[in-house]
Amino acid sequence: MAPIIVTGASGSMGRIAAKELAQEGVPVILACRNLERGRKLMDEILAVVPDARLELLQLDLESEAGVRSFVDALQGRPLAGIFNNAGTMCRRYSLAPDGREKTMTVNFFMPALLTRLLLPQFEPGARIVNMVSLSLKFSSLSLGDLNVGEKDFGQIRTYAKSKLALLLWTVALARHYPQFRVNVADPGIVDSKMIRMDRWFDPLTDILFRPFANTPEKGVRPALAALHSAESLRYFVGRRSPEIPAKYLRNPLAEQLWDHLNRSR
Ligand SMILES: NC(=O)c1ccc[n+]([C@@H]2O[C@H](COP(=O)([O-])OP(=O)(O)OC[C@H]3O[C@@H](n4cnc5c(N)ncnc54)[C@H](OP(=O)(O)O)[C@@H]3O)[C@@H](O)[C@H]2O)c1
After folding, report:
1. How many CA atoms lie within 13 A of 190 on its CB side?
2. Which of 117, 139, 217, 244 has the fewest CB atoms within 10 Å, i.e. is most exposed?
């Protein structure tokens, strides 16, 4: 059986997805930026699933070089899918090594590049699940927004745009590759280190907000359902999986993003 890649496997939701897949007997490639955290996770999973088929590979989504070295390590092996779970929400404006803003790089440019480079290796029926966020619903996007300048940056604004770009690009991917099952998953608001804003009001949000957030176990459910889905172009959220809303399916930007990325890399 070919493996499924879980990116950000050492994170709050990634680790649960990896463990659940391993429990189902699916071989899993743990794609982690920090190998030490990845090794700990491997031990954790093997403690409960001793016959789990796991591989640990380093993946740094801050740079194209990181993505390409991960793809090289897989050397044309057949794959059953990918869960693009890794993500970030940088507090301050900062540039990734390739010179683009970091949140947009980690959440959109690199997962898209990674998925594109692996397309020839996916088996027919492979599952591609991209993790989005409800914040995208309050966002808007143009091609120009991909190039985030310092004055355009906002912690949540840029995060939301990166997830909207990922959603629209996923729409184009599903259309270009109907032989795969391509979906997005929205975990809601999840009590993970991601929702720490690193601001003075953190203690306040911890009291007011965290108790109402989903646990990572609950937040990852839509993504796990998407990984088992026979359909494409669905928006997995809570216990539901409606079609991706028409305003995104009809948005010409989906195809423009597809062309833009194909041209640029
Ligand atoms: N938490 C929420 O409320 C929420 C809501 C909507 C969507 N999401 C999305 O859900 C996904 C998982 O988030 P989470 O809540 O589980 O947060 P998390 O615990 O912070 O996990 C994020 C994962 O992404 C990895 N990552 C970050 N930057 C990376 C990079 N440059 N290269 C490779 N891996 C990198 C992290 O690696 P390390 O383990 O090394 O830190 C971590 O494993 C993200 O895509 C996030 O945007 C979260």
Report:
1. 25
2. 217
